[in-house]
Amino acid sequence: MLLIFIASTIGLMVILVFLFVQLSPEFGGKVSEAHKAEYEKLDHYKDGTFVNLIPTSMDMSFTKFMSIMRDQFSSKTLKAPTKAIIPLKLDSLDIAENHQTRITWFGHSALLLEIDGTKIFIDPMLGNVPAPHPMLGKKRFVEDLPIAIEQLPHLDAVIISHDHYDHLDYGSIQKLKGKVDKFYVPLGVDAHLIAWGVEKSKIEALDWWEETNLFDIQLAFTPSRHFSGRGLTDRNKSLWGSWVIKGKNENIYFSGDGGYGPHFKEIGEKYGPFDFGMIECGQYDTRWDEIHMMPEESVQAGIDVQAKVIMPIHWGAFVLAFHDWREPAERAIKKADELGIPIITPEIGQPFIVSALDMQFPHWWENLQAN
Q1: What's the pLDDT at 58?
Q2: Residue 87, domain member (yes or no)
Q3: CA distance readout (Å), 93 to 82, 111, 141, 153, 369
Q4: How many domains does the chain have?
Q5: Is residue 233 situated within a structural domain?
Q6: Of 127, 188, 119, 128, residue with least CA distance to 158
Q7: What is the distance between the alpha carbons of residues 226 and 3, in angstroms, rounded to a whole number?
């Protein structure tokens, strides 16, 4: 009887997981056969999946897996603050009426960019948990958003770097889609948005090195060294990358996620110099260093793309790795000082003007204890 009970319980769990994966909208859509046929013509699409420009291993050996499991349950690293971070608050009218080139960090890689009179939200993961279900991830350790999604003014565009849960959030898209004119995404990510009810006419999917225009702003989708996937069977079915956003007076770079590689210099040579670079710097580990940079590499990447000033992103909101939550900023600042590149660390919700990056940005995290 005990064996029957155990077998029945396991069987029920398998059925529930299967149904969840099949029925939950969180997992997004599937790329059409017609689009797959187009992708086959690309040199970075092989055997039904996208590939990086240089060899990139994501193999997980048994030894690595066991070491991660050990750290998951025994690590004493200070991964999160003891109390929630309270962000600075934004005013919707101020956003609507602003005409300066201004950026506001929402934590992790979510940023509101105001440039040449347009409002662009980059990787607006504004949900509480970067996972397909709240039970499958750890909650955001920021008390609230700088402004509720419902209070945001009209947005001219949303830009997505790739389809991972900490960058593309179903709930956020559902709340945003009615107030956004255009979505710019990597190849294949359009399938998710269409499945979530975004009109096809609002979506433009780009390949690496493709360019488009948002009014007088030039957008270019550029490579990164990473991967994609939201479910059990869609690894690398959509593309990933970084973005160049060139306005009338300012040229801005957003790195998306990824490991260090020669693509940064290539981007700098083609589109640089940049007035400002937002560079991934967080959720790293030597066990997956080919797909996420160490902070020192993040600083070097900023130099490679020819950014005049850099800002570490991909930290300050979620626990997705084992390092101290404050470490990304501290290591990046130390390396930036060594290499002589200016670096800024604004608070979550603190708008800053791109033409005035020489202002002082206190190390706000130093006042927060971590557990």
Answers
A1: 84
A2: no
A3: 33, 18, 27, 8, 34
A4: 1
A5: yes
A6: 119
A7: 43
Q: What is the pLDDT of residues 317-358, one digit of tens each?
A: 999 999 999 999 999 999 999 999 999 999 999 999 999 998
Residue 359 lies in a domain: yes
* CA proximity to 166, closest of 18, 320, 17: 320
For the entire predicted model, the pTM comes to: 0.93
How many CB atoms are closer than 10 A to CB 356? Answer: 10
- Per-residue pLDDT of 105-143, as tens digits, reads 999 999 999 999 999 999 999 999 999 988 888 999 998
CATH number at 346 reads 3.60.15.10
**Domain range for residue 337?**
92-367
Separation between Cα atoms, residue 274 and residue 301, nearest integer Å: 12
| Cβ neighbours of 295 (radius 10 Å) | 25
pLDDT level of residue 1 (50, 70, 90 thresholds): low
- The whole-angstrom separation of Cα 4 and Cα 263 is 55
Residue whose pair of structure tokens reads 């939201």 in the numeric block: 230
Contact (Cβ atoms closer than 8 angstroms) between residue 200 and residue 58: no
pLDDT score, position 170? 98
Query: Is 250 inside any structural domain?
Result: yes
